[in-house]
């Protein structure tokens, strides 16, 4: 044991990802993995073929650090034609290793130690550690179930002279909320009034059941203070390809690109070509079928969960269900998740992973980005579990 190998202080303030931990536990117990949000079905042929072709064409070396030109052009077209945003591929776009790297790079490029960043709670677990790695302070704005609405006066009450940014994830993981026009306008208004940046995580932009996705950057006056993060992972079911994107004002793009360069140099070159292909032109039928397919899976799992005794609201977007299990067990979320994995053979994520303090103890999150037979098997196991519990 050497003192020299003590971990840095910054790593002591957060734990390993519980979501990925649950995937390991699910494997150990041969459970249906409804924990980590990754699809168990293939990516579209068009992407696979384009990736294979790029490898055959010897696209093996580093791409341009901030993204292959054809991909950045495709992304600029995507944002302009879909949402009316003015995006210059050379001044505003950075391609990253997934939205995960994008978020970390943005925090590191934007925040100084002691700056504050507001995070809506429940939240996707990365934002807390990202803030800590940047030395910044996360301030949490609790949203109340069952509707998880964002209330302007509560958000404003959290803003201090040190607040630099608000993180907004819509469609939301884990609540399934798609923030509506009024909520989006409230965030925009406060950002302008208090000179804040809005960092939006829009990775689920194409997985929608209700409402429409309107990027924060498309709201009047917001392009100059919004950093938009998204990626190919969820839209094209390629979470392992690690392809993310950042659209940011030119003023901060240089700093973001510097951080990204020294973190990863760049995203996988042949896979960037495949994403570029998917954007040239965009297959609208594929996108419509994506949401439609997920809607059927959502309904299957919501129904199955309710039948088994969970309380949950159907999500408006993304592919998660946050479910209250207090009618089924008095255990806390971690114990219940482990018990469900071991006994029922279905793995969820403990709810507390999406809260900073004591919240989420009677909640678990289920992901439904799985083949219908996988979900049917999960639902059958949950029903048996609930039945055994009530015998
Ligand atoms: N975003 C996915 C989830 O919430 C995957 C997380 C991850 O492991 N990067 O489950």
Map the helices and strands.
Elements: H1 18-28, E1 32-33, H2 45-56, H3 69-83, E2 93-96, H4 98-110, E3 116-121, H5 127-133, E4 137-142, H6 152-158, E5 163-169, H7 181-193, E6 197-201, E7 226-231, E8 244-247, H8 250-264, H9 269-278, H10 284-307, E9 311-312, E10 320-324, H11 333-344, E11 346-347, E12 349-350, E13 363-367, H12 372-390
Parallel strand pairs: 1-11, 3-4, 3-5, 5-6, 6-7
Antiparallel strand pairs: 2-8, 7-8, 9-10, 10-13, 12-13
Helix pairs in contact: 2-9, 3-9, 4-5, 4-8, 10-12
Bound molecules: glutamine (GLN).
Glutamine (GLN) binds next to α1.
Structure description:
The protein is of the alpha/beta class. It has two domains: 3-43 and 285-390, Aspartate Aminotransferase, domain 1 (Alpha-Beta Complex), CATH 3.90.1150; 45-278, Aspartate Aminotransferase, domain 2, CATH 3.40.640. Helices cover 40% and strands 14% of the residues. A seven-stranded mixed sheet has the order 2-8-7-6-5-3-4, with helices on both faces. α5 links the parallel β3 and β4 (137-142). The longest helix has 24 residues, at 284-307. It is globular, with a radius of gyration of 21 Å. The chain binds glutamine. Glutamine binds next to α1.
